[in-house]
Write a sequence for this structure.
């Protein structure tokens, strides 16, 4: 099997890379290990889309903006939270419309290289079939940097001690009384994080410190220090993102144990909410994520390593192809919330840029990396790992690869202006 471009990983970054490349006219293959696309957005129930705008300016436009507009037309997005099932539908429609070839339930098992290029991938389907895939270019959008790792490209793991960010399991709750929630926030503001307001456009609440203290008198092993949820599309639904478990996302045995523990924690947290939190008395557990939420695992070394200092200094680059404004946000395992935590929201008054060089392998000229495994240090990744920024990486690299093939030049010679202009041509907005 031979393609112009092969993408490994059908999450939000890989999806955007595939749509961009296919709309440009490239013969594009998207490989995904699960039975559907969307990654943590759909299977992991990760919500909301974290901040990707400054004042009135949307920083990630193009195909990502088109996707959000399609969701709006079908009531699949509310403010910046999405319905995972409607998201799957819209993404699959765009896959079919763009003529992307999709290969599901398939994993990469080996990478073959020649000098400074990757020549082919060996993949295996869930039924045991093995075959090779050749391609002019490859995109590692796997999240775990599997292509970079198997190819022998340099990789980073975790912080200076090798610890990954904490994992989570998201879940949704229905039958929530929003009026009672707002009343509670208004009556006892000190019981919540400082940024929580009763006048919010969208219900987004974190806190309930008194309730948790009371609950822990009966259940000292309640695995949360605060309760955090956000309003979802539809009637009286919220998505819950409140647990931090295990710091190891590489060891599959430990990861599997985290899934067991995290699923049991969902039951504990939901029962806490139903018993102690005003507005949740008549609620029901709607859905548990089928994929554990991995914030950071393996990062593939590129030509340039995007850093926390780049974020802090709002650094702009001549080859900057993605804009971001979300701040450094590192999750550790459960700890006692202090006053600093209560007021903390990653926030920046300006944007930073991710350079094209951070999306290109340091070792192989035809290997690119997008999404949470892009070339970055621990702090830089913690800011850029959010879904809109990852989508921006994907659509930029899919477009850049087309231009490199069209102009018969290295990826590093493709200009940001060329990428921006081509994205305008292929985006339906």
């Amino acid at each position: 099997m031979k393609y112009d471009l092969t993408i490994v990983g059908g999450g939000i970054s890989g999806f955007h890379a595939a749509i961009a490349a296919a709309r440009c006219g490239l013969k594009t293959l998207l490989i995904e290990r699960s039975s559907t696309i969307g990654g943590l957005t759909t299977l992991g129930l990760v919500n909301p889309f974290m901040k990707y705008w400054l004042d009135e300016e949307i920083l990630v436009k193009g195909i990502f903006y088109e996707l959000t507009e399609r969701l709006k037309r079908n009531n699949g997005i509310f403010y910046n939270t999405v319905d995972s099932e409607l998201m799957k539908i819209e993404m699959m429609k765009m896959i079919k419309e763009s003529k992307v070839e999709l290969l599901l339930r398939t994993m990469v098992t080996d990478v073959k290289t020649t000098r400074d290029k990757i020549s082919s991938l060996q993949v295996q389907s869930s039924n045991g079939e093995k075959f090779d895939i050749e391609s002019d270019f490859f995109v590692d959008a796997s999240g775990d940097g599997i292509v970079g790792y198997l190819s022998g490209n340099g990789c980073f793991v975790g912080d200076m001690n090798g610890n990954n960010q904490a994992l989570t399991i998201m879940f949704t709750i229905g039958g929530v009384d929003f009026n009672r929630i707002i009343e509670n926030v208004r009556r006892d503001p000190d019981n919540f994080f400082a940024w929580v307001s009763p006048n919010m456009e969208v219900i987004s609440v974190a806190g309930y410190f008194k309730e948790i203290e009371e609950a822990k008198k009966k259940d000292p092993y309640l695995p949360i220090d605060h309760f955090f949820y956000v309003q979802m599309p539809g009637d009286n639904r919220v998505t819950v993102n409140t647990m931090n478990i295990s710091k190891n996302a590489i060891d599959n045995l430990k990861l599997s144990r985290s899934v067991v523990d995290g699923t049991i924690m969902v039951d504990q947290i939901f029962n806490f909410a139903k018993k102690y939190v005003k507005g949740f008395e008549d609620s029901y557990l709607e859905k548990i994520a089928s994929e554990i939420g991995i914030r950071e695992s393996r990062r593939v070394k590129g030509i340039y390593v995007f850093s926390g200092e780049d974020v802090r200094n709002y650094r702009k680059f001549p080859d900057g192809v993605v804009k971001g404004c979300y701040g450094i946000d590192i999750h550790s395992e459960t700890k006692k919330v202090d006053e600093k935590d209560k007021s903390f929201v990653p926030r920046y008054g300006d944007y930073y840029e991710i350079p094209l060089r951070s999306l290109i392998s340091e070792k192989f000229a035809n290997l690119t990396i997008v999404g949470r495994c892009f070339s970055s240090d621990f702090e830089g990744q913690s800011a850029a790992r959010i879904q809109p920024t990852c989508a921006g990486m994907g659509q930029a690299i899919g477009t850049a690869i087309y231009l490199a093939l069209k102009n018969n030049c290295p990826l590093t010679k493709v200009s940001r202006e060329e990428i921006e202009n081509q994205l305008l041509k292929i985006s339906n907005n």
User: Anything to note?
Assistant: The chain has two domains: 2-161+296-331+347-426, 171-288. The first strand starts at residue 2 and ends at 8. Residues 2-161+296-331+347-426 form a domain with the FAD/NAD(P)-binding domain fold (CATH 3.50.50.60). Residues 108 and 380 are 27 Å apart (CA to CA).
